[in-house]
Amino acid sequence: MTTLLFIEQMLNGLQFGVMLFLMSAGLTLVFGVMGLINLAHGSLFMIGAFTAAAVAAATGSFVLALMASLAAAAIAGALIELTIIRRLYDRDHLDQVLATFALILIFSEGTRWMFGSFPLFLDVPKVLAGPVTLPGGIEYPAYRLSIILIGLLVAAGMFALINRTRVGIRIRAGEADREMIAALGVDIAKLYTFVFALGAALAGFAGALVGAIQSVQVGMGEPVLILAFVVIVIGGIGSIKGAFVGALLVGFTDTMGRVLLPQIFALFLEPSAAVSVGSALASMLIYILMAGVLVFRPRGLYGVT
Amino acid sequence: MTRETLINVAALAVLLAVPLWALMADEPFIITLATRAAIFALAGVGLNLALGSGGLVSLGHAVFFGIGGYAMGILASHAQSYEPIMEAPFLIEGTKSMPMIWLVAMVTSALAALAIGALSLRTSGVYFIMITLAFGQMIYYFAISWPAYGGEDGLSIYVRNEFPGLNTLVPMQFFGLCFAILCLALLLMNAIHKSAFGLALSAARQNETRVLSVGMKPYHLRLVAFVISGAVTGLAGALFADLNRFVSPTMLSWQMSGEIIIFIIIGGVGRLFGPVIGAMIFILLEHTLGGLSEFWHVYLGALLLGIVLFAKGGVIGAFAGREKAHD
Amino acid sequence: MTDVVLRTEKLFKSFGALKATNDVSLDLRKGEIHALIGPNGAGKSTLIQQITGHLASDSGTVRLMNEDLSGVGPAERARKGLGRTFQISSLAMEHTVLQNAVLGALGKRGNVMSFFKPVMKDAQLVSAAKAALVQVGLAEFAAIRTADLSHGQRRQLEVAVALTLKPKAFLMDEPMAGLGLEGAQQMIALLTKLRKEAPILLIEHDMDAVFALADRISVLVYGEVIATGTPEEIKVNPEIRRAYLGDEVPA
After folding, report:
1. Chain B: residue nearest A219 by CA?
2. DSSP letter string over B128-146?
3. Which of A34, A90, A229, A276 to mutate to test the interface with B (most CBs of B within 10 A)?
4. What is the distance in angstroms between the Cα of C130 and the nearest Cα belonging to chain B?
5. Can you give the pTM of this predicted structure?
6. Which of A43, A118, A138, B69 can pair with B247 through a Cys bridge, CB separation 3.0 to 4.6 Å?
7. pLDDT tens for residues A212-258?
8. Nearby residues of C245 by Cβ (< 8 Å), 6 or more positions away
9. Whether B114 contacts chain A with CB within 8 A
10. Final residue before a domain boundary, out of C142, C164, C186
């Protein structure tokens, strides 16, 4: 493989990782602060993508579509937090799993009912449609590069929010000790709604961004959700830093595995066998990575032991 | 007889009576539905040992269901094509014999449960949920990307496999087989529930420290429960594949894992017959609501949400009250 | 000495800068109740957890019947004869009282991987469990759900479960906590009898109980044993009066 191709694949891995971070950040915060496992996070991803596709089709503006996706996912998040999720904080994990699984069923079928079973398409905005030439002569799609930049910006924003702001202090206090922040007079109910809506908005935003490079369809959220779980297990529950490191690790491992493994197997297997063994193994690689982390650090890389 | 026992007997009676009626009314499709219910119930009975007694919220049980299915698909497809599965170092041939297929299905899913359980049980709580889900997805993607047995398209078997003395192609006979296996599994789970192992397992769910301080290891108890649980669910998978004469990665999907949990929840968590009643209601809903609207999952979701938020004990809990603590 | 059942030798444990256990050497002898007292945060619970194996020590050894328990996990230590009761009741709440006791007896017998025989019909286990319940005075409550017991009864059940293990030494973490006057007196009577079964290392805040029960008392302050002696010796030790007991000493 040429160096150029290698760098291009590294960028693809980075783009995938950044997108996973947007998904994982909300999940890990919601678990860290509220102790809730939310399977419906993938539905919020889907809501973002569908909203973006619908708004872009109606207005022709990609920026409007992105903003609408953020708003729609945040509102959907706040609504389900206020009506359903908050009843689950004191329940056991099984109840949380079931209730949020029920939400997936409702959201997925509801979306199918509104938009039909055929996938929608969200076009990459014209300005970003072509490739850009990076230093060293690498041609890389401008849109994917934008996703990387936006994702890194959002990540920086999240770190600033958690570490530098009053809300961030409250969130961290909430992770450490719920009763204490109640005693400090923080309105816990509002804080929880805010954190949940924030996570939802990030997921919806990720959905909208990804919607332009893959088709927008019902069920698109859950595979990403499960990858986000892998990220969180690797990074450690509740840690934004862990989510970031985990997301990049998963992004690189998956992307590079798919490219490299078939080539590695081609060294000593016949071509067709190399492709099938290589790609089958590549599809399992991140889970093997997760298993490896589990053996050595059962609470994840940055998890509290 | 307690009220719960009464409900249990009634559930089995209904599950047996419906196909008998369908036989007389010449409604073979109803018999197939009842067979589906019995098989789903069996899958749920398997999971219930881990989930109900052990408190292990496994969101990856479709793995074992699917492995059981593929055990059937692979063995039968090789028997169908007369190609051995492997020749070296020793010859393994396909088979159309159900008992042999069941054995292989249970052993392979038990081994998978051993591997997944040994890793996942190093953690607990929400980590366990996410990890079982992730391993489930791993096997799912593996099945999709491994072309030898149909990949994404799955694997079809032309003729249902054979059981000595029965014509398994007759719906009622195949139902009888599945029903009998379900009853055996219920007997087995009942015995386990009352055994030394069952007592220790459910004590470990209630209070891990207690179990440790009387000299037992919760990890071992849970791992054994997980393996037995996986084997029973795997057996259900083999039967399900035989019912449809088809196996595909869908059997391994996380939605399937979710559905197996739903069977348990509708009926009642930790109740011996919870999955039986839950699977019957699920099939009934699928059939009636599915007939009314193609979006019947919305109603299923709403029902599930209602049960979780307002009726935690499921159907058995609602009618039989709190579980009696002793026997 | 041959009558030493349990001994800690130079145990250390730090959490960061905090020395929770600092050079603790103690022994527990046949037939005695050895009370461990000290102000809150003195490291009593940490010490108990090091002895039971729930916490790994930084250094030092724990010996039971002169056997070094280093590297032995909590489950094995329980099997080797450490019978523990907990500060916060630690029982299977959905099980009956008898089932909890049978669980203990099962732990003692071993062979938990038995899948087909109904455990509650195992005559040996059930009679061992019932005997323990009789000893603590819970026989008539055998069929009650543990969650429905009173607080004091749960404490008694804790002791009963520990008894079924036929331990070589009891470790009891505040068995009187939360008991009323009457309950405490019942518990004192029970422990007085129990020391003949196996010696008791007793952590207790209730000074009346400690001075009524203990054959020896060790005082733990900031993770260190500052004195060990008979109740009489401890009572008159001026250093302890100053450092800890103050005017609480019963006359």
Report:
1. B255
2. HHHHHHHHHHHHHHHHHH-
3. A229
4. 15
5. 0.91
6. B69
7. 888 899 989 999 999 999 999 999 988 889 999 999 999 999 999 99
8. C207, C234, C235
9. no
10. C164
